[in-house]
Every structure is written in C-alpha cells, then in structure tokens.
C-alpha cells in the first residue's frame, strides 16, 4: 500500500522474547498517519496485564483499544484496556493510533514488554492440596493458595506438572502447555490475594488403571510491583519497578538534586542555604524561588512571576498572590473585646473568620455578603464539645484520655456516630454507627502499616529504612 503522495506505507515486524509486535501504517495524509500495532504472544504462558514500551519521534493524538500510560520525551508506555489485558499463547491483541510526524515516518525499532509476571518467592505463599472425593480412576482435588507475606499477590498465575489428565477446573482458568505441564490463572473475582488470605481452586483429575497422579512442582507468579531498593546511607538512590528504573541524586546536605527514569532526566534541583532555588524539568520548564531571611518571597516559571508571598511588620504572612489564576489570599488578625479574630479572604469574595470566644470557637464562612456556613464550637459543663451549624445540625463530641465519641444530630434525628479509641495518643480503632470497625496498626517508628476492616485486612503499607512510603496495597 502507498500513501496519497505515492510513498510506501511502513510495515515492520519486531520479534521479542516470547512476543512479536507488528507495526502497520494504514493511511497517510499531510503530516498525519493512521497505524495499527499487533501484539502477539509467541510464548507458552499467558501474558497478563500487558504494557508495551517503545520510542517514537511522532506525537500520538488518538489511540483506541489501548491507553497511553506515559510519554516522556518520546518514550511511550502503552497500557491495555480491561477487556484485552490478557493474551493467551498464540493469540494477539491490536490497538490503533493517529499520529503526527515531521519529515518521514519511522516505525519504532524496539519494543519492551512490561508488566510481565514475576516469580513469587517460596517463603511468601503456601499451597495446600486436599482431596474432596476419590474413586479408582479419578478424584476431586482442591488447591489452597495462601499468602503468608505482608504484600499483596496480584493477578496470580500457578504453573505445575501433572501426569493425570485434568478434565475441568473451577475458580481459575486453565491452559495446557508442554506435555504434562499446566498453567492456571486467576478469575476476575479472585485475582488478588491479600496478606494472610487465600484462594481455593478446584479440579477434576482423570487417572488410569494405575491410579491418579497429583499435581507437583508448583511455581506461583504474579503481576505485583517488584521493588528493588538500593540505599546509600539513609537516602534512597535507586528504585526499580516493573521495568522502570528511578535514580535519585543528592548533594552533601542530603537534598535531592536530580531524578531520572530509565536514565532519562526528569528534573534537576539547585539549593542555596538549604533552600530550593531552582527546578529544571526535562520539558524545558524552569521554576525559580527567591527568599528573604528564610521566608519565601516569589516564584517564577520560565522567567514570569507566578506566586508572591508578603508579610506584615511582625514577619507574619499577610498575603499570597497567585498570578497564574489571578487570585489573592489575604490573612489578617485583630483583637475585639478580648477575642482574637483571624480572617482569610480571597479577592473573589470568599472569606473565612475564626474567633476564640468565651464559650469556645466560632467559625464563619462567607461568600460576598451571604453567610454560607457558621460553626459555633463550645464546651458545656460536662466537658462535651458541641459544634452548631447554620442548618441546625449539631455535632456532639465527648473526649476522654483514650477515647472520643462523635454524634451528629439534626433536631432529634441521629444522622451518624463514630467512636475512636487511642493508645499512647495514636488512634487504634474506629467504630461507626453502621457497625463498621476499622483497626489501625503501626511499626516501632509510628508509621501506619496496616488497616483492618471488620477483622479483614483492608490495606497495608511498606516503608524504606528512612520511612519513605514504598507501597500501598489495597
């Protein structure tokens, strides 16, 4: 096929490790072209949750059957849609683009398949077989896969050997590979295994006159984020995650001066007297900051003033000017009848005032001349805090040393309530009016590491040695 100007349309085939990508230019006009990418699984295992990385000189203005996850200086990462996330052995998925180009059309010459499966370490899971029913030449077998680690197992896949024929499987998908080898993969409803949780799959085995041979040689893989952490002293200087490599550089004071992804610079930072004075991004944007006596004065983007901070004679912040959005924030404090009134106002008519009065705190939120919201925060004789809103809603709060209880009422109607308990000043449990119970767990440094909902793990967190959050597993 040829373009409108008679030039040959591009068609290229790239062969990778257990996959191929075919680039097919279908149409060309002006400085635009339409092309199709065909990703084929040439291996013997399922490609799950595929993501494709490659370099292109062109700008993709439209895409279908896939989505652009990122584009950093021409390095594209294309991600699957939910309906085509998995590719069985021998199958293909395709996606199309409309692109703008300059000069000549050059097809990508290298592709990297990201998000491929990683083997799960043997100490992170336990597989327990159990026979549910058995007869001379067959049986019903269940396999329990239990996550005994503190990390989520995502989009799992189990490979094993079995001499007997597997007639059917439930709670999983099955693919037969080479002789006597099988692969089972998760269903949509059991694809993630939370820490200390398990999934169970069942299968019907058919033996012969010698009996039944059971599965063996289990290897579990998943698509969870694979972190490799390299630290220099207390600073994180390299992190790998599913094919991405993040590099961090610091000055002698431990301030980050450079971030690169796959050796492509993202930004560089400069400091003076321990304060950030310049940020240079890979897209050419330059952000500079000025200070006086340790306080920020202004911020410029590409030489144009973007923000300005102003202070009163006592050194307190009095005004922030946002030149980008033409907004000015004004802060003031005055004393009236022995009460301190703090006011924040914006040049569009918004204002928020907070005053400490004899019975408690009063907060008034106004827009122009209209009072939108008012809250009176008082403490009664029984040491119960009461917040009163404009619409008649009242929030009652009882606080003791290790517990607080919030109740929201409108008139005599109870809308909601929550009881929070503390230990050493840190929240450890919340109980809501509908019976929902949340428990919070922390490490020795006070970092939250796990939240349970009604006794089941809801989310976990992992940190580096210097308390940087690495992963949140839902």
UniProtKB/TrEMBL annotation:
Molecular function as annotated in GO: hydrolase activity, hydrolyzing O-glycosyl compounds; polysaccharide binding
One BP term from GO: carbohydrate metabolic process
Pfam families: CBM_2
UniProt xrefs under InterPro entries: CBD2, CBM2/CBM3_carb-bd_dom_sf, CBM2_carb-bd_dom_sf
Domain annotation CBM2: ranges: 12-121
UniProt name for this protein: Cellulose binding domain-containing protein
């Amino acid at each position: 096929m040829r373009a409108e100007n008679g030039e040959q349309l591009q068609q290229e085939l790239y062969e990778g490790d257990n996959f191929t990508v075919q680039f097919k230019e279908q149409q060309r006009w002006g400085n635009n072209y339409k092309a199709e990418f065909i990703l084929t699984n040439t291996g013997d295992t399922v490609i799950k949750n595929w993501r494709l990385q490659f370099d292109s000189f062109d700008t993709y203005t439209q895409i279908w059957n896939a989505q652009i996850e990122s584009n950093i200086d021409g390095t594209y990462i294309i991600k699957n849609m939910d309906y085509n996330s998995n590719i069985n052995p021998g199958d293909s998925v395709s996606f199309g683009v409309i692109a703008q180009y300059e000069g000549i059309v050059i097809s990508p010459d290298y592709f990297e398949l990201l998000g491929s499966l990683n083997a799960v370490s043997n100490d992170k899971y336990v597989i327990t077989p159990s026979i549910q029913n058995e007869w001379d030449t067959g049986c019903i077998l269940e396999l329990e896969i239990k996550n005994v680690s503190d990390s989520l197992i995502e989009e799992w896949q189990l490979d094993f050997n079995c001499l007997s024929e597997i007639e059917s499987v439930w709670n999983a998908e099955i693919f037969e590979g080479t002789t006597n080898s099988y692969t089972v993969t998760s269903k949509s409803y059991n694809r993630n295994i939370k820490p200390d949780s398990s999934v169970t799959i069942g299968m019907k085995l058919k033996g012969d006159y010698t009996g039944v041979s059971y599965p063996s040689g289990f290897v579990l893989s998943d698509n969870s984020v694979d972190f490799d952490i390299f630290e220099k002293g207390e600073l994180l200087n390299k992190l790998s995650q599913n094919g991405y490599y993040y590099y961090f550089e610091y000055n002698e004071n431990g301030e980050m001066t450079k971030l690169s992804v796959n050796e492509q610079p993202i930004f560089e930072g400069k400091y003076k007297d321990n304060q950030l004075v310049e940020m240079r991004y890979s897209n050419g944007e330059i952000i500079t900051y000025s200070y006086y006596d340790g306080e920020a004065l202004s911020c410029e983007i590409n030489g144009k003033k973007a923000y300005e901070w102003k202070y009163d004679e006592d050194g307190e912040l009095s005004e922030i000017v946002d030149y980008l959005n033409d907004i000015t924030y004004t802060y003031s404090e005055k004393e009236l009848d022995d009460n301190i009134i703090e006011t924040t106002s914006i040049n569009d008519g918004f204002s928020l005032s907070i005053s400490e009065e004899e019975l408690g705190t009063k907060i008034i939120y106004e827009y122009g001349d209209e009072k939108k919201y008012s809250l009176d925060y008082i403490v009664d004789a029984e040491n119960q805090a009461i917040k009163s809103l404009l619409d008649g809603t009242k929030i009652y709060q009882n606080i003791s040393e290790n517990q607080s209880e919030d109740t929201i009422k409108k008139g005599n109607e109870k809308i909601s309530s929550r009881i929070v308990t503390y230990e050493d000043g840190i929240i450890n449990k919340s109980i809501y009016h509908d019976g929902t119970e949340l428990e919070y767990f922390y490490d020795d440094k006070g970092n939250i590491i796990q939240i349970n909902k009604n006794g089941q793990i809801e989310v976990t967190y992992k940190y580096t040695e210097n308390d940087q959050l690495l992963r949140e597993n839902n």
